[in-house]
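_Per-residue structure_
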Amino acid sequence: MITLESSRTYDRIDAMLLRALIDDPDATISALSHTTRLARNTVRSRRDRYAQDGTLRSFERRIDPRFLGYPLSAYIVTKVTQRKLDSVAATLATIDEVVEVHGLSGITDLLIHVVARDADDLYRIAGRILDVDGVKRTSTGLVMREMVKYRIGQLVDPNVS
């Protein structure tokens, strides 16, 4: 059994259920029970726990921004005034095109993932970010191609005890 940062643990049943959900994210409790050969109550209680503790991310992460009219994706590395980090993050959360922000250690402070309708829109968004009080410097990198899609299944170990 592997202990996670909270009091919950990751075990063989979790591995089976998570693998089944990776294969079919929209599977019903009955289908998961059939696939994994686990009791429906076990499947239901585990899925409920996953939803409550954040193990399963929101459906929102599955929506392709291109479908919504945002075909450009870019990452903006950002240097900020450290004491203004929280207010910078709060302001970035008000910019619709900012889809995620990561705080980093090392040579930069934030990695901001943005989406845009076109190059002019990206220029406008980058300008808005640069205008945020506490942002010192930015550098924008346009995503040209996704080389490795987001994946996690390879980490699900079926041999967990």
